Amino acid sequence: MHELAITQNILDIAINEAKAAQASQITKIRLIIGELSGVVGECIQFYFDFLKKDSIAQNASIDFETVPAELHCRDCQTSFKLEDSSWACPCCRSTNLEITNGQSCFIESIEVE
Amino acid sequence: MKRIKVLKNIASANDAIAAQNRGLLDRYNILAINLMSSPGAGKTSLLLGTIAHLRHQLRLAVIEGDIASKIDADRISKEGIPVVQINTGGSCSLEAHMITNALEKLPLKTIDLLFIENVGNLICPAGFSLGEHRKVVVSSIAEGDDKPAKYPIMFSLADAVVINKIDLLPLQEFDLAGFHKKVTGLNPRVTIFEVSCKSGHGIEAWCSWLLQQLQNHRKT
């Protein structure tokens, strides 16, 4: 259910930015979704098409880029992308790992007219 | 056509409200704990055990978050502790603005330690700061030892992890050492407690940690 609230946030942020730039409409929103963020692009798309009606984003499309989870091994200093759910370093099998990328979800940019 | 760089986290609106909540709590010198777990891990039982242990030393209060019902608030209320029930009506996590409303209903002048029991869910609550000072994750033996691998973000954000229902260990295949290793691997600064709310095992160590956190918080 929280994709509804998230989508409303995305729309609010985009509309505020567009208004601050004195734009009359938003044509594109570029969203970066971290693999571990728990945000599901398909759900965002579904709610977005519903929520954007009658706003300056009504003709906007939403582009998703998924960022894979990246980890750093604190023992052997290897940085790697998470390929399976083993949560172990591929070099030394350590589980002493820092998540360095893929946790967050943010609006990278918007296109306006 | 014009492209505008935004680079704003989608939770930024929530985070701003959370910061206001934290400011309000700080004015009243209250330490707030965001208690998170999957449904049935024992958040409310842990609260009841904690209340029994700390009620004569500290002034406690509770905000209960559930999708529906006031079962948990009733359980806390019986103990004579101020409690506010939030029903999220389908939303899978508490959000900062809900806490703002709940704080208006609590006697802030007479609270030392405030527990916010989040909606039972190991995914969504990790994304919403509420203005709390500490995040605590409760995970129980009955859920299995794979939870840190399946919900890494939740465990990586926790200040403390309580492994509840430790009395079930002899009945369950649960790699306790592996669980510890996985959690501290993801999160080296975490403190882990092994607790049985049923027998009371570990409640004292957990409560000492809470007292220490309150002390540290009031020094800053």
- Beta-strand fraction estimate of chain A: 25-35%
Overall geometry of chain B comes to: globular
Fraction of residues in H or I helices of chain B:
25-40%
Name the helicity range of chain A: 25-40%
Order of SSEs of chain B: EHEHEHEHEEHHEHEH
CATH architectural arrangement of chain B: 3-Layer(aba) Sandwich
CATH class division of chain B: Alpha Beta
Largest sheet of chain B: 7 strands, parallel
| Biggest sheet strand line-up of chain A | 2-1-6
CATH fold node name of chain A: hypothetical protein PF0899 fold
Q: Specify Rg of chain B, calculated over alpha carbons.
A: 17 Å
CATH superfamily of chain B: P-loop containing nucleotide triphosphate hydrolases
Question: What ranges of chain A have pLDDT less than 50 throughout 5 or more consecutive residues?
Answer: none
Could you say which structural class the secondary elements and strand pairing of chain B correspond to?
Answer: alpha/beta
Integer tally of domains of chain A: 1
Instruction: State the strand order across the main sheet of chain B.
Output: 4-3-5-2-6-7-8
Short description:
The complex is a heterodimer of chains A (113) and B (220). Chain A has 113 residues and is an alpha+beta fold.
